[in-house]
From TrEMBL:
Highest taxon, organism lineage: Bacteria
Sequence ranges of Acidic residues compositional bias: 80-115, 123-148
Region (Disordered): 80-148
Annotated organism of origin: Confluentibacter flavum
Protein's recorded name: DNA primase
Length: 148
């Protein structure tokens, strides 16, 4: 007796060719990410070892190559991010490194910002050379203690 999976088309998918449809299937099958025991290892035609996770549709078995980009993209998956794209459009999936660079423009973390409330002169805080020219004066919080 033949297994239903014997007649499936088999497709190896790299991150660059990942589509919203395949990503949605991956997130549905692996909602908490994939574990080592869910990774399939095999050799490709060039005799290179490939590690992939499997997701199946009614007519195709996809082996999606495992990568850090895939894990990050699955972790940050939001179906609404892909509403403007066709389900088979590989350009819809953004490289997480590019997305991180774009998010740097929207930096809300103030931990690395310079405290500009104590500057003695106007400087462009984006120009590191100007920071060397600042006059630093000690701040005396106990001004009342100086009264003789």
């Amino acid at each position: 007796m033949k297994n239903r999976n014997d007649n499936l088309k088999r497709v190896i998918v790299d991150f660059k060719k990942l589509t919203p449809e395949i990503l949605a299937l991956l997130v549905e099958k692996y909602p908490d990410g994939y574990d080592e025991d869910q990774i399939i290892s095999f050799k490709n035609a060039s005799n290179e070892i490939i590690e992939a996770v499997e997701v199946t549709t009614k007519d195709t078995k996809y082996l999606v190559k495992v990568s850090k980009k895939l894990a990050i993209t699955m972790e940050n998956y939001d179906e609404d991010d892909y509403g403007d794209f066709a389900t088979d459009d590989p350009d819809a999936i953004q490289d997480p490194e590019l997305a991180i660079e774009a998010d740097d423009d929207l930096d809300t973390d103030d931990s690395d910002d310079v405290d500009d409330t104590k500057l003695d002169k106007d400087v462009d805080l984006d120009d590191a050379d100007d920071l060397d020219d600042l006059d630093e004066e000690p701040i005396d919080d106990d001004e009342d203690d100086d009264i003789d």
